[in-house]
Each structure stands twice: as structure tokens, then as C-alpha cells.
Amino acid sequence: MKKRVLIVDDSTVTARQLQKIIEDSGLFEVVGHAKNGIEGIKQYASLKPDIVCMDLGMPEMDGIQAIRMLKGTDKNARILVISSAAGVGTKVVEALESGAKNVLTKPFDPGKVIDVMKQL
Fold first, then answer.
1. Please, which residues bridge with residue 4 across strands?
2. Domain count of the chain?
3. Which of 41, 35, 40, 44 is nearest to 9 (CA)?
4. Which residues contact 15 (CB under 8 A, 6 or more apart)?
5. What is the pTM of this model?
6. Which of 31, 37, 105, 106 has CA atoms 20 to 30 A from the CA of 21?
7. 99 in helix, strand or coil?
8. How many angstroms separate the CA atoms of 73 and 70, rounded?
9. What pLDDT score was predicted for residue 13?
10. pLDDT for the residue 105
């Protein structure tokens, strides 16, 4: 059975690229796409995905706030941060301390995305 994935990213281009990588693997299916942390939290509650791919820099509610809220409601939430902000060390550390399981940087290496997702 395929693991269900929710993508939370304000960039439609990035979300589509990530969705293609995820679905082409045959191991996962994307069940939703949210454009900010607020939408992501709502979709997490209704879709109950196995994995959340979370961007850090988004309008209305950023990824760090969303990670904290998700972990507050479901301590078992599996969150993978996918962000161009990964070069900004403090944000990465903050995301991991808030409960993210791992961090990947844009642009994506498809093989690495799938390898990391398999470990979640």
C-alpha cells in the first residue's frame, strides 16, 4: 500500500515538481497540496497523510509554526522539510528541534527525495 503524502508549499511549480518525483516512485501518492501552514494543518486533519513535505518560507503561517502545531496535535506526525531556506542554518535547526524528521534542499535530487521519504 502506498504511503499518503501532503505537500505544503506556496510555490505551485515546486509542489508539482515534488509531486511528480513522489508519484513516479510508485511508493507514495500525493493526497493534497496546501499553499501555507494554515491550509496544511487543516488538510492534515482531514486527509490524515502518512508524511508531510513542508516548505519553511510561506505566507500567513510559515513551516516552523506549522510543524509546531502539527506536532502539538499529533506527536507521531512525520514531517520532511523541503526548502531552499535549508542553507539558513538556524531555520533548519529550528525545524528539526520543532519536530521535523529530516531536511532536503531545493533543487531536488529525485533519488535522494525518495530515499529520505522511505526512511520516514
1. 29
2. 1
3. 35
4. 7, 9, 33
5. 0.94
6. 37
7. coil
8. 5
9. 93
10. 83
Q: Convert the pLDDT of each residue in 19-35 to its tens digit.
A: 999 999 999 999 999 99
Residue whose cell numbers read 496546501: 34
Q: Which domain holds residue 11?
A: 3-119
Low-confidence ranges of the chain (pLDDT < 70): 85-88
**Domain harbouring 26, CATH code:** 3.40.50.2300
Residue 84 is predicted with a pLDDT of 76
Contact 15, 39 (CB under 8 A): no
So what's the pLDDT on residue 106? 80
Cell numbers given for 60: 500567513
- What pLDDT was estimated at residue 88? 61
Sign of CA dihedral 62, 67, 68, 72: positive
Instruction: Report in angstroms the alpha-carbon separations of 74 from 30, 43, 59, 70, 103.
Output: 20, 13, 23, 6, 19
Q: How far is CA 35 from CA 65, 89, 111, in A?
A: 14, 23, 25
What pairs with residue 79 in β-bridges?
A: 52
